[in-house]
Amino acid sequence: MRQLALSSRLMYTRPLPISRLMGALADRAQLNTMQYGKRPYGVGFLVIGTDDTGPHLYEFNPTGNCFEYYAMSIGARNQSAKTYLESHFTEFTEADLDHLILHGIRALRETLPQNKQLDQASVTVAYVGPGADADPHSSSLREGQKFTVLEGDKLATWFERLGPSERQRAAAAAAEASAAAATENASSSADNAAASTDNASSASAPDQNTQASSDNTDNQPRPMDEN
């Protein structure tokens, strides 16, 4: 990739478009899957870059397939990160660099087992923006647009703003719903118990009336004996 990019700059005095670079790499990888005695490439990777058409993100795999994405993840447990990215990718077009880095770290955190925490020592962030393909010695290249790598203490600002993970939010929501259901069930049980007590009181009232009627009958005068 470096050789292709350098050749384009030396021969045509301009940087090689990202799409053409990835196309050339995909063609070379695909040939290795067709020719006898050739060994396919044994690695897949993500490529970020920028050219006259804007920023790009490509996924390359050893079969020679190469696709462009708004967001993508590869590697072990990558589906958890993909789920996060798919849920938030509509925000990316309007997000600034600060929020894009935050989304990237959050997506990476989703791939960890529940008993592990993401720390700064295990994370490296790289970014590049429009204007990075200009002459590196030119003063017109704005700071922050060239290819930059952040790691270690430089990531402290974003780690302080991570907040709860998607799994933690889901667990908290489930616990809240369970507590609300338990409270509602307890309230219903109490209402039913109160209703049962009222019914029992009503059922005892006829017994009292019957006793009162019996007493009244005893108090009535009896007819005199004709004899």
UniProtKB/TrEMBL annotation:
One of its GO terms (biological process) is proteolysis involved in protein catabolic process. GO terms for cellular component: proteasome core complex. Keywords: Proteasome. Residues 206-220 have a biased composition (Polar residues). Residues 173-205 have a biased composition (Low complexity). It holds the Pfam family Proteasome. Residues 173-227 are annotated as: Disordered. This is Proteasome alpha-type subunits domain-containing protein. It comes from Malassezia globosa (strain ATCC MYA-4612 / CBS 7966).
